[in-house]
Batch of 4 targets.
Target 1
Amino acid sequence: MAYNITDDCVSCGACLPECPEGAISEGNPYMINPRLCTDCGACAEVCPVDACKPILERLAHGS
Ligand code: SF4
Ligand code: SF4
């Protein structure tokens, strides 16, 4: 599994330095490389708009 960044992302950049795996890259929205993400949740903790979500959670909510 992996985290994913939704379209709610406002490209603030807060999550980028928090990822211990270097899995996040800049963009609009920012993106997470699922092959590197270890589901640590650090990005979700700092995101001001709650755009970092576990992929399974997104499926469960139909987004
Ligand atoms: S959950 Fe952790 S490893 Fe995955 S993108 Fe967020 S900070 Fe990086
Ligand atoms: S912290 Fe949230 S809003 Fe900011 S760049 Fe990362 S995903 Fe986007």
Target 2
Amino acid sequence: MVGLERGQILHSDAVILNRNKRPTGQGPSFIDTENVFAVDGRQPLYMIDSFVSANDSSWVYKAKDLTNKDYVAIKISKAGVYATKGTSDILELEAKTMAKLRRCRGVVYVRNLLRMGDGNRAIVMDFIEYPTLEDKINHLFSVESPIEDAELIKVVKEVSKTSEYMARFDLFHTDLKPGNIYLDPTYTLISDFGISTWVLQDRSMVPGESIYMAPEIIVSKGKVKPNLRSEEFVIAEIAYQMLTNDLIFKLRNKAGPEKVIRAMEEFSYLQLRDFASLEKRLGPRRAILVDNVLGKVLEKNPQKRYPGPVEFSKALEKAILST
Ligand SMILES: Nc1ncnc2c1ncn2[C@@H]1O[C@H](COP(=O)(O)OP(=O)(O)O)[C@@H](O)[C@H]1O
Ligand SMILES: [Mg+2]
């Protein structure tokens, strides 16, 4: 399969998931496991509008749902990339994971999963008009203006709540990063569940090395399972990035995870963070408080961290709002 053209119509051979509207009564109440994957016989058609993004294994397009004229985002697998014998396509697992989170307000809503004639899968999601946190950080960096306290707190709290909600079902995203977080003013959304634990579990895979991953996860090469404290570490790194427009372990800009891990083993958070930039952003008093909170979460020893992201987010909020 090659890339798609504007105006091209997408047919599907099989509709695996189909629910165009988020069910009412949302919120972290229960997980919908029944009937989620039922084929309802309709064959929705989508018309490609524009290219959005690509990586090694998939493309993302903006498209129009021809049945109701809504815009959707369609993530389509590239042929052959995941065609391992006997395993279902990873994109299908990704969509099914998102489908089980349809009642969670902090997750991008998945509408549909299509099986195409060539065997590829396409995930159809709500099209999110809002920027990702990555877009926002880049923009703010270019205009040299800091992210507002209220927005920072909102993002950290909401992503933390979503992460803890998912953990109740033993699901960890493991790829949280600014590019997978969308700044919906109603509720911050996360997406891109391609390496989340349910997907990896099903394929007996170990997580790859993401530059935002907690050190104990990378070092253990799959032995330490992702957990609330490792997710908390990642959310704290993202918070630091929002505050300083910089990565906490600066090496991460250039070096691969191995070098980062070595640096993290040799040095502590106190040596690797840029306190001056926290101070510039927050003033001396708040910088010390916020630095203490971040230092606790970015401990190498997970036992010294807060028990989970929500407690961390509360401590961070308190430090930022202190006078
Ligand atoms: N539902 C969506 N609405 C709007 N843009 C999206 C949506 N899903 C993905 N994108 C865009 O495509 C990019 C890549 O999508 P993502 O699911 O993160 O895949 P990957 O990072 O694996 O390539 C996102 O960073 C975002 O810019
Ligand atoms: Mg992504």
Target 3
Amino acid sequence: MILEALVVWLVCAFAAALIASAKGRSSCGFAFLAFILGPLGLIVAALASPDQEELTRRSLRNGTLRKCPRCAEAIKREALACRFCGCDMALFHEERTWLERVADRLAGI
Ligand SMILES: [Zn+2]
């Protein structure tokens, strides 16, 4: 009986860690909380609000987002214009060579 309860508590801790990690929260902290509280800790992890700043930092690190060179806000990597300041991101696209960017500027694009 004690062994089964320990397995349930460990599963709750592991699930809470996964949920917290997906929300940008401390996976170790929520795993510890769920290990102490059991299923209640799992519910707390499920109801916790996502840490948007951490999720943005992760997206910047993995390349899903990039910073606008003008306003420094995080925008999608594929965006052609910044949604915050309207900066033309085509001029800063990494796939474009320096010569292509200069040619576009001279052509008035
Ligand atoms: Zn911008």
Target 4
Amino acid sequence: MMSKDNELKPIEMMKSEDIHRRRINLTRTLPRQNAYTLALDGEFSSVAFNEERAPLNKGKWRESVFEKKSDALMDLEIGTGNGTFFAYQAGKHPERLLVGMELKYKPLIQSIRRAVKQGSKNTAICRYHAFNVDLLFEKAELNDIYIHFPDPWVAPRKPKNRTVNAELLKVMYDLQRPGSKIYFKTDSREYYDWSLEQIPMTPYKLEASTTDLHQSEWAASNFLTAFEKIFMRQNIPINMMILSKE
Ligand SMILES: C[S@@+](CC[C@H](N)C(=O)[O-])C[C@H]1O[C@@H](n2cnc3c(N)ncnc32)[C@H](O)[C@@H]1O
């Protein structure tokens, strides 16, 4: 069960700072379980957390989930998809911890399975909505945040649903430690331009930006995610920005 502090309030009781909240269904109440929901609460339950168990780790991910000290570096990837970056990053940086966040069961399990199978001990994943990220982490609990190809909400056009928005960025800023970064990539120029306009409304510094990542100085060090490969095959230029908290 969720602790009282982390419980989602009814919409009419929400304060203005809570209004970004999104509700998602509970795995426990699904009419039918499948191999992925069973794996979430079974085989992978020590490193994969459903929407009720995940917030119980708030403020203690390092110590409780990873058995590490409070100064360990711990990053978050929002929307892991099938987890190719998730596993790559975990393998490349065994000295850092990586928490994934994913709404859908299949990619969630694919991600954690990929990481566990390669022997990574530094990953955990949770089924959660990005807009509720502050119910999962305390202020200054996170280091870097990766947001790769989030749903652009251009058709239908619903900018309020975009993850890289000023309100949520301000929330994420508080959750990060000084010196941390947000890495954001999108195939959608519309989303990218819209997000660029959001940055001055937040405390973040725009450290780097490009509308053609694969032709830029960052191309050599860039990891191609599963969606990025699809966009690449379609010759769609990739937009990227790095935000920093000083
Ligand atoms: C377009 S895919 C990109 C996946 C991966 N990052 C990549 O680059 O291949 C977006 C992913 O974000 C997940 N997602 C969408 N909205 C989300 C939200 N609000 N919170 C967490 N994950 C979300 C989707 O389920 C999907 O797996």
